[in-house]
Amino acid sequence: MTDEDIKRSIRLKREELGMTQKELAERLGIDRNTFRSLETGGTRMLNAHLYSIAEIFGMDVLDLIGSGTSSGGGTQVFSDVTAKYESRLMDERRSYDEKLRVMGDRLRHAEELVQMLRQQVQDKEDIINLLRSRKNQ
């Protein structure tokens, strides 16, 4: 099962149900141009929406991914596709985890800077108050 087989299956089922690209895109919560890219070449969006598309079509994802091939799908096809998408999802999760870690580090650094600046302001206020008290003596 290739990405092209999956895209073909989605297109054929969408057309069979009489749905336009715009209608399916709206049901997925994406714009028509994004969906058109999905159907004609944008495999990344397909990964995120494959199960939602099957649900909208009222079918199991196994049936959806198997219906665009001449073999009719099967358990091995489902396993292959699932493994492929799980691998991509894990890569994306690692990337997001790393970005989250970096953002956490930056936030901690910013909090330290804010604390340091607060202390500097307090020190300057103490100096000003000391000078005022000396002036008034």
Low-confidence stretches are: 68-74
How many helical elements?
Answer: 6
User: Roughly what is the average pLDDT, rounded to an integer?
Assistant: 83
What gyration radius follows from the Cα positions, in whole Å?
A: 28 Å
Q: How does this model look, in words?
A:
The structure is a single chain. By secondary structure, the chain is mainly α. The chain has six helices and no strands. Helix 1 (3-16) runs parallel beside helix 4 (43-57) and helix 2 (21-28) crosses helix 3 (32-40). It is elongated, with a radius of gyration of 28 Å. The model is unreliable at 68-74 (pLDDT under 50).
Question: What attributes characterize this protein structure?
Answer:
single chain, 137 residues, mainly alpha, 0% strand, elongated
Provide a brief overview of the structure.
It is built from 6 helices and no strands.
List the SSEs and their pairings.
Elements: H1 3-16, H2 21-28, H3 32-40, H4 43-57, H5 61-66, H6 75-135
